[in-house]
Amino acid sequence: MVQVLNFILLTSSELADLRDLLKQSLVNSAGKDLFVSLYTSWCHSPMAIISLCLLAQTYQHASTVIQSLVEEDINVKFLVQLDKLIRLLETPIFAYLRLQLLEPGRYTWLLKALNGLLMLLPQQSAAFKILRTRLKTVPSYSFSGDQVKRTSSGNPHPQIIHHIPCGSQIFEDGDINQDVGASNSHNGINFTLRLHEFEQMQRQHRMHAKMQAQSRNSSTPSSKDVQR
């Protein structure tokens, strides 16, 4: 169900306004509230969470989620969903993301997230070739440190960089925050807590899958029982 809802969110023309709101999750309170509300349900699916993060431009968190995946998470179902996402990245919906690749110095976390997805794909798959081809087009140059603050993760809203209040900083994933000490919270989004929520949900799903497998194995008669 979550995968279906996620696909509708990413593709439906009627939800274009919601997508635009999510893109402002790091600088807009309404966008933040929407992101946090969806996160609780979306964290049932790793690919749904990754898609949500790419849409909300929380690229560092997307990269962290990708690296938190374990062997049990990367199954056939996951790879099918990943294939769909890679193809969606080539559509007009994610045009803003592809344009951000023109500034690799400002969107390092985006590059890291996309390369992380590339590493999860089988090399012989069409999705691997599509994403690898896209990443090959990323220019080798980057902005100097004087042009942007905190270039390690980039500002997904370059239009507001000229209106930063004095004393503010651009934090990870481009959030503008007055409180230098709030390194793990951006626009009120505690990404450390969100990651814990995601990992806990995935552990529950893995335990449930193991219990189901054990139940099926115990209910299946052995060859000796069949012979008897």
TrEMBL record:
Major localization class: membrane
Region entry Disordered, spans: 203-228
The keyword Repeat is assigned to this record: yes
Pfam families: Vac14_Fig4_bd
Keywords attached to this entry: Membrane, Repeat
An individual GO BP term: phosphatidylinositol biosynthetic process
Intracellular or extracellular location(s): Endomembrane system
GO cellular component: endosome membrane; PAS complex
PANTHER family: PROTEIN VAC14 HOMOLOG, TAX1 BINDING PROTEIN-RELATED
Name of the protein described by the UniProt record: TAX1 BINDING PROTEIN-RELATED
Organism encoding this protein: Salix koriyanagi
